[in-house]
Design a protein that fits this description.
The chain has 337 residues and is mostly beta strands. The protein has a single domain, classed as AttH-like fold (Beta Barrel). Helices cover 3% and strands 57% of the residues. It contains 2 helices and 28 strands. Strands 3, 4, 5, 6, 7, 8, 9, 10, 11, 12, 13 and 14 form a 12-stranded antiparallel beta sheet that branches. Strands 15, 16, 17, 18, 19, 22, 23, 24, 26 and 27 form a 10-stranded antiparallel beta sheet that branches. Strands 1-2 form a two-stranded antiparallel ribbon. The radius of gyration is 19 Å and the shape is globular.
């Protein structure tokens, strides 16, 4: 599948799948992003995040950055870690990726074409899962290189619903439990530094009736220009929603005891034409990633597992919310010890 677009520098660009599952050398910043929920055979629930960022042209800085997080929903604990590989870029292999976080391979991600394999060690736990796309990819902005109002541009697609199966060991070398669940994969690439500097609010929601909802918003003056949503039905048919089609607002906030940042916490999303009225709430309040960084001052942000209910409080699904750019210290602090 190939869709043509024009980047802000005048080059002809296109989303090409599955080729662009692999590293795209023409783009300065890009990421491969997985979030989702799973449960063990014993019924214990978890949320997870694995992401690999690649920076190629950022002030001459070349690096691959990895973040991972695991939310123990029933245990009420949040674990995260960060790895930086300076001056290392992935191989440009069309249709495939193969990432390793560090020399100890704490996080490994490989795959392409909607069939991915993730391995992660975090908080004494070891996760090994395979993901298979259940619906066609959703290509955003009609596949074009979308110029942001704040500068730069993005190419962007999602595999919104991926079946997850694998194992989880709760202790190092301990017994493995089978896990099943669903994941969401986001792939974004282009000239993304202006967007990173501004920050955003992003929702990736799996509804129990098979629909998947993404909402993206920039803050402040650029809010209206860049706000959009994408609602996909159980057969993979997608509908793009403009700011006139839906309303999304926060219902509270959470002050971080770690960074002093005040994040929105709890939301309502209304899509009148679909008779869809959702309440979204964190399954654990403290899901902030605020690592002390080596080599560079990486981001501090909130990204967490959430539950989705109707206005009467009945369960409708689960999802992930990302809040980037809210921190007073956007790029965190360096580990100088």
């Amino acid at each position: 599948m190939a869709l043509l677009g024009t980047g802000t520098d005048g080059r002809k660009l296109r989303v090409t799948l599955p080729d662009h599952d692999g590293f795209v050398p023409e783009c300065g910043v890009q990421w491969w992003y997985w979030t989702g929920h799973f449960a063990t055979d014993s019924g214990r629930r978890f949320g997870f995040e694995v992401v690999f960022f690649v920076f190629k042209k950022w002030g001459g800085f070349l690096a691959t950055l990895c973040h991972q997080a695991l939310t123990d929903i029933d245990g009420g604990r949040f674990h995260y870690d960060e790895f930086t590989r300076p001056f290392q870029l992935p191989l440009a292999t069309p249709g495939r990726f193969d990432f390793t976080s560090d020399n100890a391979a704490a996080v490994v991600a490989s795959g392409g074409g909607g069939r991915d394999h993730l391995r992660s060690r975090l908080g004494g736990m070891q996760l090994d899962v395979r993901l298979v796309a259940q619906t066609p990819p959703t290509v955003h902005y009609e596949g074009c290189a979308h110029p942001y109002a704040v500068g730069g541009y993005t190419l962007y697609y999602s595999r919104k619903r991926m079946k997850l199966e694998g194992t989880l060991a709760l202790t190092p070398g301990g017994p493995q439990e089978r896990v099943v669940g669903e994941a969401w994969f986001d792939r974004q690439y282009g000239e993304l530094l202006p967007a990173i500097e501004l920050g955003w609010q992003w929702f990736a929601l799996h509804l129990n009736d098979g629909r998947d909802l993404m909402v993206f918003q920039f803050p402040g003056a650029h809010h209206a220009a860049e706000t959009f949503a994408s609602l996909t039905d159980a057969k993979g048919r997608n509908r793009v929603l403009t700011p006139d089609d839906f309303l999304c607002h926060s219902t509270g906030e959470w002050p971080s005891p770690h960074t002093g940042t005040r994040y929105p916490s709890g939301w309502q999303i209304h899509i009148p034409s679909e008779n869809l009225h959702l309440q979204v709430a964190p399954q654990l309040l403290d899901q902030e990633l605020h690592a002390e960084h080596q080599y560079w001052a990486g981001p501090e942000y909130w990204e967490g597992a959430c539950e989705v209910k109707d206005m009467q409080g009945r369960a409708l699904g689960v999802g992930y919310v990302e809040l980037d750019g809210y921190s007073k210290q956007l790029f965190g602090k360096l580990d100088t010890d």
